[in-house]
């Protein structure tokens, strides 16, 4: 708007400075007209250029967003999480109640059993040598199976109590997803596999592991007798 007004004033001024015949000198008028046309052409070019630049930026931003979205989708489809909850959720539907019965979706108890074993195996290793990987694997499998067996026994004992507590009402036995007989068969399978792991050790370890089975069975009953059932659980973990 300012440039247009300035051009008009310049044209009017040039027209006022005419000769006696009332005509504008051709050179000045043509110069002003050409300047005005060049100014308008440059403004239109700048406007078109700015609009095209904004359009290109918008298209580039949209393509980047689409590319990131597709990349996120691809990465999400290819990614695999090793957390306990993801393993349980990715298992078949008829297997998930058994995995939740052995608390595979909450592996903190397994780690509490397994980490002291790893420390002991590391301390027993020769100087400047790595711990025995075979022993680490055996004790890791044993910790997973025995923790699952303890949770199965706990849910079998506390079925009626778990139904009355909101935190435990959704457990597989309390909710009716698994019967006590099915849980007993599953418990037998876990203990059989744990016995196979135990037989890979020496006789002293076999005797010590067999003696801790009584604590695994009686631990859930201690909650009916004392407010300190964790003492029995700690003794079980120590052994």
Write the layout of secondary structure elements.
Layout: H1 2-16, H2 26-78, H3 84-90, H4 96-101, H5 108-124, H6 133-157, H7 159-162, H8 172-175, H9 180-198, H10 203-211, H11 213-222, H12 229-238
Helix pairs in contact: 1-2, 5-6, 6-9, 6-11, 11-12
Describe the protein in words.
- α1 (2-16) packs antiparallel against α2 (26-78).
- The radius of gyration is 41 Å and the shape is extended.
- The chain has helices at residues 2-16, 26-78, 84-90, 96-101, 108-124, 133-157, 159-162, 172-175, 180-198, 203-211, 213-222, 229-238.
- The model is unreliable at 18-30 and 65-79 (pLDDT under 50).
- It is built from twelve helices and no strands.
- The protein is mainly alpha-helical and 239 residues long.
Provide keyphrases for this structure.
239 residues; mainly alpha; 12 helices; 75% helix; 0% strand; extended; Para-hydroxybenzoate--polyprenyltransferase, mitochondrial (PHB:polyprenyltransferase); transferase; UbiA_sf
Total E-strand runs: 0
Estimated helix fraction: over 70%
Biggest beta-sheet profile: none
Shape: extended
Q: Report the order of strands and helices.
A: HHHHHHHHHHHH
Number of continuous helical runs = 12
Task: Summarize model confidence as the mean pLDDT.
Answer: 76
Instruction: Determine the structural class based on helices, strands and strand pairing.
Output: mainly alpha
| Low-confidence blocks of residues | 18-30, 65-79
First CA to last CA: what distance? 91 Å
- Strand portion, in percent? under 5%
Rounded radius of gyration (Å): 41 Å
